């Protein structure tokens, strides 16, 4: 592992010759830093059952979790069971979920999901990956979200944030989501997979943005071979987002007053 110093921060830069053991150790250190950085990490889709989480996850395609959470209270009250989704009036459901976008396709998925659950699973959401991925609107990513958060079965959720961050950390060179899932899963204990996924996604939404990551205010700077992808000066704190943006600055050793007030109330992507 090559060391380099940028803007007063010594970072690690992995080369092709980083050993598997070295990569695993660095991955575990990243995991521990994320645990300290994001003690509030959780599934950001509001739900109180596996069915509600399945529905919310389908609605979250091409939509922020915040927008989904604005829509779901009325939806969940109107359709409390799988049978209710199966028998739903299409026009009424479309109106309820319209703010989440792609509402015609999503309505189609929700009605078909309800029908499949009634026909094949007695109206219950199954707790196995092999069954979940056969349901309309539910791919492997959604299935892992449901398993991890509604059934307590450890699962890795490879969404756009997860993919971007593990690539920047050079923990894997895989690009296929299933291969990424297996490669990252091999670096961490299985029991940690679900929370690790939440923490990585939290970091991607609040700190390590796609276009302009807040490298100068990132708690992972010393472990990240992509340090410098975004601005490295402390003023990068203005790029932090979410209600804990000031805490994130403090954790990174940066003056929290550099975080603008609007960043604290800004929606995370
Ligand atoms: S914000 Fe910068 S230093 Fe932090 S993880 Fe992302 S690329 Fe690495």
Automatic annotation (TrEMBL):
It comes from the Bacteria. GO terms for biological process: base-excision repair, AP site formation. Coiled coil: none annotated. [4Fe-4S] cluster binds at residues 208, 215, 218, 224. Its EC number is 4.2.99.18. CDD domains: ENDO3c (cd00056). GO terms for molecular function: 4 iron, 4 sulfur cluster binding; class I DNA-(apurinic or apyrimidinic site) endonuclease activity; DNA binding; DNA N-glycosylase activity; metal ion binding. Its cofactor is [4Fe-4S] cluster. Binds 1 [4Fe-4S] cluster. SMART domains: ENDO3c, FES. Residues 1-22 are annotated as: Disordered. It catalyses: 2'-deoxyribonucleotide-(2'-deoxyribose 5'-phosphate)-2'-deoxyribonucleotide-DNA = a 3'-end 2'-deoxyribonucleotide-(2,3-dehydro-2,3-deoxyribose 5'-phosphate)-DNA + a 5'-end 5'-phospho-2'-deoxyribonucleoside-DNA + H(+). Keywords: 4Fe-4S, DNA damage, DNA repair, DNA-binding, Endonuclease, Glycosidase, Hydrolase, Iron, Iron-sulfur, Lyase, Metal-binding, Nuclease. Gene3D superfamilies: Helix-hairpin-Helix base-excision DNA repair enzymes (C-terminal) (1.10.1670.10), Hypothetical protein, domain 2 (1.10.340.30). Residues 59-206 form the HhH-GPD domain. DNA repair enzyme that has both DNA N-glycosylase activity and AP-lyase activity. The DNA N-glycosylase activity releases various damaged pyrimidines from DNA by cleaving the N-glycosidic bond, leaving an AP (apurinic/apyrimidinic) site. The AP-lyase activity cleaves the phosphodiester bond 3' to the AP site by a beta-elimination, leaving a 3'-terminal unsaturated sugar and a product with a terminal 5'-phosphate. NCBIfam families: nth. Belongs to the Nth/MutY family. This is Endonuclease III. It comes from Micromonospora endolithica. The gene is nth.
